[in-house]
Specification:
By secondary structure, the protein is an alpha/beta fold. It has two domains: about 1-30 and about 105-200, P-loop containing nucleotide triphosphate hydrolases (Rossmann fold), CATH 3.40.50; about 35-105, no CATH class. The chain is built from nine helices and five strands, in the order E-H-E-H-H-H-H-E-E-H-H-H-E-H. The chain has a five-stranded parallel beta sheet with strand order 2-3-1-4-5, sandwiched between helices. The longest helix has 26 residues, at about 180-205. It catalyses: 3'-dephospho-CoA + ATP = ADP + CoA + H(+).
Length: about 210
C-alpha cells in the first residue's frame, strides 16, 4: 500500500495526462479519476444498472452500453438530474480511487482528479500538485486537441474553479508553458521530493 498520496489537478488543457505519464515512467502508480468514472458505469456494472433504473433503457446504446451523448443531453434538459447522478457516481468513484491507492505497490501514488478542489477530494490526499498554464494556452491547446469552439472551452472552464483559486490550494505547482524537457526536469525534482516524503510517512505509520 502507498503510504503517501499526491493529488494531481489542473484546468482543462493543462496537460494532466502528460504529467501523469511522466510520473508513470518513473514507476509511480497512477490512479485516474476519469478512467474510474468510465469503469463505474461500464456494461454490466451496478452503477449502470442504477442509471437505467432511474432514466430508463433509452439511455443505452444498441449493445447495452451507456449512451453518454444521450445522458448528457438529458442532463442538459433536466439540470436537477445532475444532482441525482453525482450523488450516485461520486461515492462509487471515490471508493474505487481509495481502493486503488491502497493496492498501489509504488512508494507513493498519484491520484489524477480534474475536479480535485471542486469536489473537495483534496482531503483524500497528503499533498496537492497543480499544473499551471495561462488561460490563453488552455484555450488554444484544448481547441487543437478536441476540435471544439472557443465558446465551448470557455463554458467548460467556467464550470471549474479559477486559476487563482486552484493555485491557492496547491502544495506544489508545475508550469507547463514550455516543452516536454522543461516539464520532465520539474517532474524529476518532484519525484525525489515525494519519495522522501513517502519514507517519512511510512516511518510515521510504523
Amino acid at each position: 500500500m502507498a503510504d503517501y498520496i499526491v493529488g494531481l489537478t489542473g484546468g482543462i488543457g493543462s496537460g494532466k495526462s502528460t504529467v501523469a505519464n511522466l510520473f508513470a515512467e518513473l514507476g509511480v502508480v497512477i490512479v485516474d479519476a476519469d478512467i474510474i468514472a468510465r469503469e463505474v458505469v461500464a456494461k454490466g456494472s451496478n452503477g449502470l444498472q442504477q442509471i437505467v433504473n432511474h432514466f430508463g433503457d433509452t439511455i443505452l446504446t444498441a449493445d447495452g452500453a451507456l449512451d453518454r451523448a444521450k445522458l448528457r443531453e438529458h442532463i442538459f434538459q433536466h439540470p436537477n438530474e445532475r444532482t441525482w447522478l453525482n450523488a450516485l457516481l461520486h461515492p462509487l468513484i471515490r471508493q474505487r480511487m481509495v481502493a486503488q491507492c491502497q493496492q498501489a505497490r509504488s512508494p507513493y501514488a498519484l491520484m489524477v482528479v480534474p475536479l480535485l478542489f471542486e469536489n473537495h477530494l483534496e482531503r483524500l490526499v497528503n499533498h496537492t500538485l497543480v499544473i499551471d498554464i495561462a488561460e490563453e494556452t488552455q484555450i488554444r491547446r484544448t481547441i487543437e486537441r478536441d476540435q471544439v469552439s472557443k465558446a465551448q472551452v470557455r463554458s467548460i472552464m467556467s464550470s471549474q474553479i479559477g486559476r487563482e483559486q486552484r493555485l491557492k490550494g496547491a502544495d506544489d505547482v508545475v508550469s507547463n508553458e514550455g516543452d516536454v524537457d522543461a516539464l520532465r526536469s520539474q517532474i524529476l525534482a518532484l519525484h525525489k521530493k515525494y519519495l522522501n516524503q513517502s519514507v517519512t510517512a511510512k516511518k510515521r505509520h510504523e
